[in-house]
Structures are given as C-alpha cells and as structure tokens.
Specification:
The protein is an alpha+beta fold. It has four helices and eight strands, in the order αβββαβββββαα. Strands 1, 2, 3, 4, 5, 6, 7 and 8 form an eight-stranded antiparallel β-sheet that branches. The longest helix has 10 residues.
Length: 164
C-alpha cells in the first residue's frame, strides 16, 4: 500500500499550472510547529513536513511548500480550482485574503474524498498562497480530515508568522 505522501504525489501534480520553479527560493522564514517533522526532499518543493495522525485517523498528514519566482506559479484562482478538483464531491470554503508586511495571503479549505488510485474518504486540504515582491509560496496541508482540522491552528500560526 502506498504511503499518504505517495498517494498525494500521485494526484495530478499541483504545480502543473506553473511553467517553472525558482532554483533558489527567496529568503523567507517561518516557524514550523514542534510536532511537525521535516520530510524527505522532494522534487519541486521548498519543504515537506509530516504531521502525526490524530488518534483514530488512519494516517498522517503532509504539508508541502512550493516557491515560485515573481510571475510564475499560476494564478491564485487556478490554484484554488486545482485544489478543489483534487476531490470528489468537494466542500470548499470561500477563499480569504489579507495583506500584511507587503505580503498578500490567500487561505482556503476544501474537504471531501481525495482522488487517488484508492480514493481517500474524509480528507481535507488547508491551503495558503503567500505572494510577495520576491515570489510566492504555496503551502498545501492535506490528510485525514480530523488530523488536518486539529493542525489548523498551527498551520495558521505558521502562515501568519511568515517573514520574507
């Protein structure tokens, strides 16, 4: 059986809307929650974090971070649409946008059955697109609904604390 990370990677590649990634991400930093563990290096990612499963959930969750130079990475709307299309019978929230410290932050949630070789019922995605003058970071946290819901506070703090 494939690991959650492999099932997620088997989806239509989230970044297919982008022509290229930056070779070197702009210098940005964020505080990774203590319970999150760094995952192995993955192609096209600035970082990967693995989150422990909430009691009763079948598997862990994964937060993938991508960086794009200015003008690359696809539009916010295209990315949100792509995230919704990764689910069967999706239940999305309306995107929320804020601006602080020269960064435009769009956050979004969707849940439903994640499309994969073996559809994953009761999955959830938290997403954040952080746009700044040096480029954009795309944060995608995905996994079992309870695990992701329990991680929402940490995810929000990480995004709110982004400096760049």
């Amino acid at each position: 059986m494939a690991t959650p990370a492999r099932r997620v990677a088997a989806l239509v590649v989230f970044l297919a809307v982008a022509p290229a990634l930056a070779a070197e991400p702009a210098q940005a930093s964020w505080q990774v929650p203590r319970s999150w563990k760094s995952g192995p290096a993955r192609p096209m990612r600035a970082a990967t974090y693995l989150l422990p499963a909430t009691s009763g959930d079948p598997e862990l969750a994964e937060c993938a971070v991508f960086f794009f130079q200015p003008g690359l990475g696809g539009s916010v709307e295209a990315t949100l649409d792509h995230w919704v299309k990764a689910f069967e019978r999706p239940v999305p929230t309306a995107p929320s946008q804020s601006t602080r410290d020269g960064l435009t932050v769009t956050t979004f949630e969707v849940e439903g059955t994640l499309k994969s070789d073996v559809p994953q019922k009761d999955f959830k995605l938290l997403g954040a697109i952080v746009q700044g003058p040096k480029g954009s970071y795309y944060f995608r946290l995905i996994g079992p609904r309870r695990t992701v819901s329990d991680a929402k506070r940490d995810f929000t703090r990480m995004i709110d604390g982004l400096h760049g």
